[in-house]
Design brief:
The structure holds two protein chains of two kinds.
Chain A (H helix, E strand, L loop, with lengths): L3 H8 L4 H11 L5 H10 L3 H6 L14 E6 L14 H10 L4 E4 L3 E4 L2 E6 L5 E6 L13 H11 L9 H4 L8 E5 L2 E5 L7 H4 L18 H4 L6 E7 L3 E6 L12 E6 L3 H9 L5 E3 L2 H7 L5 E7 L3 E6 L9 H9 L3 H6 L6 E3 L23 H10 L7 E7 L4 H13 L4 E7 L1 H5 L8 H4 L2 E6 L6 H8 L13 H12 L3 H18 L2 E2 L2 E10 L2 E2 L2 E2 L5 E2 L4 E2 L3
Chain B lengths: L3 H26 L6 H6 L5 H11 L5 H12 L14 H36 L4 H14 L3 H15 L15 H36 L1 H8 L4 H13 L1 H16 L2 H7 L4 H10 L3 H29 L10
Helix pairs in contact in B: 1-14, 5-6, 5-8, 5-11, 5-13, 5-14, 6-8, 7-8, 8-10, 8-11, 9-10, 11-14, 12-13, 13-14
The chains are: A alpha+beta, B mainly alpha.
Chain lengths: ~550, ~325
């Protein structure tokens, strides 16, 4: 516990919002780590660093080549349009963000040195780190930063980040203040904006102002490694960037190989030809109990959302929606299907890892008797038949079977319709997409650093991913309160109301939040990664045998 | 030898086949869900961004217009730009063709001596134990799918014994022999899978040729056994084998999607599969057309070899 004196010392670092957080921390409502993460969000980066977060690490031996297996990129590698995990893994060797959202330490200043908001959180100003150079030797200036964000919010640029910035940042919103300062005028107040210029939006790599979309030619970024060679469809290699602004990378080289087949990937790892590979539940079985490998995991907000169409029978009655949610034994799913590498969810996007989540909202548990009672009340005492449509991806088909079995206990007869992934998403627009049109479906959502996009896109009445067709004015109003809330207490208050409303309405079932894992050889130390596929290898060292 | 008339008929057939295939691929591709913009930017991308990208790639035009634009360029040898890989299609297709051809060569290098040799031995010893063993072994290996045997071979020879690399791709700087060495393990599943089939074909041909009149005549003429086998029996016996090998060569160059994926060889099969997944029509068209051309040409090459072996074949004009 920090002493009283220290608390007083940090009290006046910032305005009232900060002091509320300090009060919360003193009252035991906020963990020390969360307080520090919060400090970073407010731009108190110096304070977080002084408390030993994201700072010094033990000295490790430099040298060696880290050999990485990744999947096959689905298209030409370009930070602006990137969507696939393999490409993000490659880009994270050379590209950097204003801020890194570190799964352990929260927001870490990278190309931005500090940031602050105006009173209404509608304008955010970022001071840039001086002396940073692109790999081609040119200095990084505010011009490059402004151009990078203007590119991402321009529909004509082929940016896949447009949906992330919708309603938050529009064209013309990023402004040059001076050579080392950039300001963002937002579409509306947003207390979480630093997350939107962080690695959370994986497209937001800072690229030169004159970037022409030819990233594969030279992989020109600012990161700790720079390109040695690239072979499309085969792999890439990188060498230490000796001009890097921060601590130089420990490994001499990084070698990345693309694999079409995960079995081949795990075999190559077992044969000692790779040091790091992505992980899946199946692969974890292959290395379980093997001392030559480690499974590293970070808790994420990624989840498989079960949507229940609130505008179509049988789910127009919220009692029926609640009944289905009550049949599910979440603990069993986390233990069984997810091998304990997940945390239980409570049918809202507020994952426990978000400081704004209200943990006092009661956890929904399996209750078959109550489910049957609700079905009786809703006029279907003997249950009903419904089709669950979903995608053949990850553990989802297994999850669908588990839901089918749980639902049976209350007399609900779930028929399964498992489609190939691209067929499930279809054209991803209402009316021609099983994902958005099905009565009952399961969709995989990747990790985000804040719940905002889940809350807005999947449940707001106008949301582009609102598969539940949830149209609830009270919810929309609460969401507005939530996004306006500046301090943690107000955010949590709004979050609690949203959580309670979603439990009552149950437009979606979110029974778990997964961890994101990688399998690593026991010979390497210091592999770091984010839950959205960034792979950070600059601190990797080899254990001396 | 093939006359000019037959040759021009062949070329005409090839071009007609390719044209029909190109239409089929293009229009069949239209029934796939989603469009190139949506596939490239992902299901969670903004609809406006997807529409803009489709417009930029010309994927928003009517399908006939798209086909005509592609076709009018393709006849001049310009196969356009890959939508997903952002570069000209030709180098990608050529590169993958080279890799597939290397793999197919290694397969044939093992398959032909093994399959034909075993078939000849079985045919000459029809009914004996060795014959039964060869046929049994061939059938047993033939029913194991290539992805099973491929994985088994990888585990045994790659992981446990460490005799071969896990990947089928040698480093760039490697020499000719090293590249070949990397391809041995990927080639084996196909060799095992097809050897029995080839052996049975050869065996049937040998048995038939031994029973034929010309062989009896040769025996009665008092020729040496070796001369009878090589000059009379094998020359006639190999006809069905060559026909089968010709059709299988097309498959080896374009149909080894699973083996290519398992061993990380970016061959033609893989290129076509990924192009279809990405709705990358220029790439898909070029890949499929190369495959179709190989099928037609390898069948033609088979006919040519048959014609050289059998004078009667040369008078056939059917393509």
């Amino acid at each position: 516990m920090t002493k009283r004196r220290d608390i007083d010392a940090v009290r006046n670092l910032s305005g009232g919002i900060w002091n509320v957080a300090v009060d919360e921390y003193q009252g035991g409502f906020l963990k020390r780590r969360d307080l520090l993460k919060y400090a970073a969000l407010l731009g108190l980066t110096g304070f977080a660093a002084s408390q030993g977060l994201g700072g010094a690490r033990a000295a490790a031996a430099a040298g060696g080549t880290v050999r990485v297996g990744l999947g096959q990129p689905t298209k030409a590698i370009d930070p602006v349009s990137v969507t696939d995990p393999a490409s993000i893994g490659v880009i994270s060797q050379v590209g950097e963000y204003l801020i890194l959202d570190d799964p352990k330490d929260g927001l870490q200043p990278k190309l931005a040195l500090s940031w602050e908001a105006n009173e209404t959180a509608s304008r955010w100003t970022f001071k840039l780190r001086p002396g940073v150079k692109f790999h081609d030797g040119r200095a990084v200036t505010a011009k490059d930063v402004v151009a990078s964000f203007e590119r991402l919010v321009d529909p004509a640029s082929g940016s896949s980040a447009l949906s992330a910035y919708k309603g938050i940042l529009s064209k013309g919103g990023a402004k040059l203040v001076d050579d080392e300062t950039v300001a963002f005028d937002l579409d509306g107040p947003n207390s979480n904006f630093p997350f939107y210029v962080s690695s959370d939006v994986y497209n937001a790599v800072i690229l030169p102002a004159d970037y022409a979309g030819d990233f594969e030619k030279n992989f020109n970024g600012t990161g700790p490694f720079k390109l040695e060679s690239f072979r499309p469809k085969q792999g890439a290699s990188f060498v230490r960037n000796e001009d890097y602004w921060g601590d130089k990378a420990l490994p001499d080289r990084v070698e990345i190989k693309f694999f079409d087949d995960e079995q081949a990937q795990v075999l190559a790892l077992q044969a000692g030809q790779l040091d790091v590979i992505p992980s899946t539940t199946r692969l974890e079985l292959a290395i379980e109990g093997n001392p030559n490998f480690k499974l590293l995991s970070v808790q994420a907000s990624s989840h498989d959302q079960v949507h229940l169409r609130t505008d179509q029978a049988p789910f127009t009655d919220k009692r029926i929606r609640r009944a289905l949610a009550l049949t599910i034994d979440r603990e069993a799913i986390v233990k069984g299907l997810l091998k304990g590498r997940a945390i239980v969810g409570n049918d809202t996007p507020f994952a426990p890892i978000f400081p704004s989540a209200d943990s006092s909202v009661p956890q929904r548990k399996q209750d078959i008797a109550e489910a049957k009672r609700l079905l009786g009340e809703a006029g279907v005492p003997n249950g009903f038949e419904v089709t669950l449509t979903t995608e053949r991806a990850y553990d989802i088909p297994d999850y669908a079977v588990i839901i089918q079995n749980f639902a049976k206990k209350a007399g609900i007869d779930v028929k399964l319709n498992v489609l190939p992934q691209d067929a499930y998403y279809g054209s991803a627009t209402f009316g021609s997409s099983p994902w958005l049109d099905s009565v009952l479906g399961i969709t995989d959502y990747g990790h985000r650093g804040t719940p905002d996009i889940f809350l807005n896109a999947t449940l707001k009445s106008s949301g582009a991913w609102n598969a539940a067709h949830f149209n609830n004015p009270a919810y929309d109003a609460l969401l507005l309160d939530y996004s306006k809330a500046r301090d943690l207490q107000a955010q949590r208050l709004a979050a609690g109301k949203i959580q309670t409303l979603l439990l009552d309405e149950t437009p979606a079932i979110i029974s778990y939040f997964s961890q994101y894992s990688r399998i690593v050889s026991s010979k390497v130390e210091g592999v770091r990664f984010t839950a959205i596929s960034h792979l950070l290898l600059d601190r990797v060292s080899f254990v001396q045998a | 030898m093939l006359t000019g008339r037959i040759l021009s008929a062949r070329v005409g057939t090839l071009l007609l086949t390719l044209w029909l295939v190109s239409i089929l691929v293009f229009f069949a591709g239209q029934v796939l869900p989603g469009d190139v913009g949506r596939v490239m930017l992902g299901p969670f991308a903004d609809a406006q961004a997807v529409a803009e990208l489709n417009k930029r790639l010309g994927a928003d035009q009517p399908v006939f217009v798209q086909y005509w634009l592609w076709f009018s360029k393709a006849v001049t040898g310009d196969f356009g730009t890959s939508l997903s890989m952002r570069g000209p299609v030709a180098p990608f297709v050529l590169e993958s063709l080279k890799r597939s051809a290397a793999l197919a060569s290694i397969i044939l290098l093992f398959l032909v001596p093994l399959g034909v040799g075993a078939g000849v031995i079985a045919g000459l010893n029809a009914g004996r134990l060795i014959d039964r063993l060869i046929v049994m072994a061939g059938v047993s290996f033939g029913i194991v799918p290539d992805f099973v045997s491929g994985l088994m071979l990888l585990i045994v020879f790659g992981l446990w014994l460490n005799w071969f690399p896990i990947s089928g791709v040698a480093p760039d700087a490697a020499g000719f022999w090293t590249h070949g060495y990397y391809l041995i393990l990927p080639a084996l599943p196909l060799v095992l899978n097809l050897a029995g089939y080839i052996a049975r074909m050869t065996r049937a041909g040998v048995i038939e040729a031994i029973a034929a009149d010309y062989t009896r005549t040769a025996v009665l003429k008092g020729l040496e056994r070796r001369e009878i086998i090589f000059r009379h029996v094998l020359r006639n016996a190999l006809t069905p084998t060559i026909a089968v090998l010709a059709t299988q060569t097309g498959y080896m160059l374009g149909g080894l999607v699973v083996i290519e994926a398992l061993f990380g060889i970016q061959g033609l099969g893989n290129l076509v599969l990924n192009a279809a997944k990405a709705r990358d029509f220029p790439m898909l068209e070029a890949g499929v057309l190369v495959m179709a051309a190989i099928f037609v040409l390898s069948a033609a090459a088979g006919d040519l070899v048959l014609a050289l072996l059998d004078p009667r074949q040369r008078r056939r004009t059917s393509p």
